[in-house]
């Protein structure tokens, strides 16, 4: 697991105030929203803010499907890496 | 026994009509005394009188005297210095049991003649704490009080018959005043003079009367034990309860012991009686009270017990059923909004309490990046078992799952604090602000110290391992145990508080861990310092069983 993956998992836990969950409990490809971790759309909004702030990146408000980046830790890590390079 | 309207109680004298016992007191005597006191009040030029009298018969004399004399009456809820200071400007004379104030027997003059009382001129003011905590005055005209006692008699007069009225509540508040004093006076029932807050006194008073009824509150009714003579007490004509919600199990226990359900009265100082229920979760309004809801769903009251034309808006959320019965959903300040969704905290608390693992629960909003709910949960015995054998996460997940049918996903509590009991304040309440504080505070790192004693150079401590100890989850999430390193840490920290020890940890020896220590365990810890070798001996035991022991080498900071 990359540092970025680990970092994002900790960010999810901290930003959403999740109790009794450690980074080990979140799988890289686990669905974060809906079933999965049981997070909802408001969590997705919160996480969006936290990701942008933490990594100094912007989610393109005009692009379609930006929320697809939030499917899993894998997709978030890919998104953050791509943005940081850009 | 015949009814006399409240405003006509000072008209004709009825020497055969009993008002109170020990000493016996008749209606004729009450009437005579009230007219004498009325004359004395007029002679002294009193226009505003504060009354605080323990004896309900004396209170009755004072009230009727004031009304007969055209004097405004204030009934302060207590006589604390702050209360007196607050109302000092509203009062010419304090008529109380306290030394330094005027006593009732000091007020004497040739009696004023008998007369009817004016329903709209006579009044009294009650003090209440108000929902903001700031005391306020509530004025009641005699008409409002007369309307209410008439309703009570229509509902329950026949049942009560000639029962002597025995009260566990003060007559100084609206409920006690109406039920213990004014209603019996009009109905011709006698009452016990003193407030009897203890079950044993209530029983003794009950034995002295062939027929009796209780005017009580949950404070007493939920604390009546097996020490009482229930077969005798079951002769009670009716058990009234008001002032707060009577827990369902207390009501059921009374039903089982007395063969009747308590009659609960819903009301407040502002509104007087609103509704009643008996062995039911649903309330029904008193006949002449008319109820509705505002846009927020809060109960609105129009009632002949309120000043005419006044509509009282409460903060109690309510749901009406077709037959006119209604359900109280809790105070509106306990209905919160999360992301525009309205959530009733009491409803979810009740739902949580139906889970086998939960004995009580309180919820509050936890404000973080997003607002969510947090839960204070008092675990039942099976809940503690589940925590110890499945772990905290499995427990909270199961409780969240249990709530799924009751609310939207966003209302599922995200933060949990597991407690052995709710930290109620002196009034038996848990203010919302305190729930919030407890939920925001980090989980504890230290044991609950329940006892400590010293024998020579040895200390013996009794500890309870908190259910919610912060050290527990990460270790063995499925079966939380108290880590050995934490046991060593506690031994060091506790002994450093009790004894004068070198501060620095320099090693351990002969460590033995023999038995697991788990959340909720009550354990003993013995501590002894051997100054020669500079070693702290510690041993944890659970009952007879040794849990762990060892020696900790301590050295000075500069060593």
UniProtKB/TrEMBL annotation, chain A:
Residue ranges annotated for the Carrier domain, each copy included: 2-84
Pfam families xrefs: PP-binding
Gene3D superfamilies, alphabetized: ACP-like (1.10.1200.10)
Domain of life: Bacteria
PROSITE patterns attached to this UniProt entry: CARRIER
InterPro entries, per the entry: ACP-like_sf, PP-bd_ACP
Protein name per the record: Phosphopantetheine-binding protein
Organism, as annotated: Pseudomonas petrae
From TrEMBL, chain B:
Organism: Pseudomonas petrae
Domain ApeI dehydratase-like intervals: 452-551
Pfam families: AMP-binding, ApeI-like
Protein name: Acyl-CoA synthetase family protein
Ranges where the AMP-dependent synthetase/ligase domain occurs: 106-281
InterPro entries, alphabetized: AMP-bd_C_sf (IPR045851), AMP-dep_synth/lig_dom (IPR000873), ANL_N_sf (IPR042099), ApeI-like (IPR054545), ATP-dep_AMP-bd_enzyme (IPR050237), HotDog_dom_sf (IPR029069)
CDD domains named in the record: FabA_FabZ
């Amino acid at each position: 697991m990359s540092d970025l993956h680990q970092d994002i998992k900790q960010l999810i836990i901290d930003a959403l105030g999740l109790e009794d969950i450690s980074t080990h409990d979140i799988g890289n490809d686990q669905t974060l929203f809906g079933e999965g971790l049981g997070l909802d759309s408001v969590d997705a909004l919160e996480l969006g803010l936290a990701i942008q702030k933490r990594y100094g990146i912007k989610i393109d408000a005009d692009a379609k499907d930006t929320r697809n980046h939030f499917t899993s830790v894998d997709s978030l890590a890919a998104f953050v890496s791509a943005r940081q390079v850009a | 026994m015949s009814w006399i309207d409240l405003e006509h109680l000072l008209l004709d004298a009825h020497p055969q009509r009993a008002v109170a016992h020990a000493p016996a007191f008749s209606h004729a005597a009450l009437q005579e005394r009230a007219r004498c006191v009325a004359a004395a009040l007029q002679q002294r030029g009193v226009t505003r009188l504060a009354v605080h009298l323990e004896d309900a018969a004396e209170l009755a004399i004072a009230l009727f005297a004031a009304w007969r004399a055209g004097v405004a009456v204030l009934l302060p809820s207590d006589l604390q210095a702050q209360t007196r200071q607050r109302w000092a400007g509203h009062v010419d004379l304090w008529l109380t049991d306290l030394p330094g104030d005027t006593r009732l027997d000091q007020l004497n003059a040739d009696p004023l003649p008998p007369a009817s009382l004016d329903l709209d001129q006579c009044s009294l003011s009650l003090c209440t704490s108000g929902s903001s905590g700031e005391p306020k005055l509530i004025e009641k005209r005699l008409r409002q009080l007369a309307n209410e006692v008439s309703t009570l008699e229509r509902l329950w007069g026949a049942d009560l018959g000639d029962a002597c009225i025995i009260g566990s509540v003060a007559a100084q508040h609206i409920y006690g005043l109406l039920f213990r004093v004014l209603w019996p006076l009009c109905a011709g029932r006698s009452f016990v003079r003193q407030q009897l807050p203890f079950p044993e006194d209530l029983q003794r008073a009950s034995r002295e009367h062939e027929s009796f009824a209780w005017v009580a509150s949950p404070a007493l009714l939920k604390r009546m034990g097996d020490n009482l003579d229930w077969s005798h007490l079951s002769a009670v004509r009716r058990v009234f309860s008001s002032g707060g919600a009577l827990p369902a199990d207390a009501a059921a226990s009374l039903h089982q012991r007395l063969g009747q359900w308590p009659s609960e009265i819903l009301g407040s100082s502002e509104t007087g009686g609103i509704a009643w229920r008996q062995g039911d979760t649903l309330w029904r309004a008193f006949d002449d009270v008319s109820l509705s809801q505002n846009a927020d769903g809060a109960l609105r009251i129009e009632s002949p017990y309120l000043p005419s034309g006044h509509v009282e808006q409460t903060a109690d959320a309510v749901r009406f059923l077709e037959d006119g019965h209604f359900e109280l959903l809790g105070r509106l300040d306990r209905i919160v909004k999360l992301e525009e969704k309205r959530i009733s905290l009491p409803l979810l608390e009740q739902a949580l309490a139906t889970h086998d693992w939960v004995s009580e629960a309180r919820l509050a909003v936890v404000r973080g990046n997003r607002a969510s709910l947090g839960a204070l949960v008092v675990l039942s015995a099976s809940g503690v078992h589940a925590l110890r054998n499945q772990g905290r996460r499995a427990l909270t997940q199961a409780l969240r799952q249990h709530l799924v049918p009751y609310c939207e996903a966003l209302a599922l509590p995200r933060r949990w604090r597991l407690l052995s009991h709710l930290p109620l304040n002196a009034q038996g309440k848990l203010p919302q602000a305190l729930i919030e504080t407890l939920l925001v505070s980090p989980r504890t790192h230290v044991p609950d110290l329940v006892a400590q004693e010293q024998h020579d150079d040895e200390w013996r401590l009794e500890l309870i391992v908190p259910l919610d100890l912060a050290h527990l989850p990460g270790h063995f999430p499925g079966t939380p145990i108290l880590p050995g390193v934490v046991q060593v840490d506690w031994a060091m920290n506790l002994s450093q508080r009790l004894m004068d020890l070198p501060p620095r940890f320099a090693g351990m020896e002969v460590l033995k861990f023999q038995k697991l220590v788990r959340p909720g365990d009550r354990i003993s810890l013995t501590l002894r310092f051997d100054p020669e070798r500079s070693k702290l001996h510690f041993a944890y035991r659970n009952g007879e069983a040794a849990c762990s022991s060892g020696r900790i080498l301590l050295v000075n900071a500069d060593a």
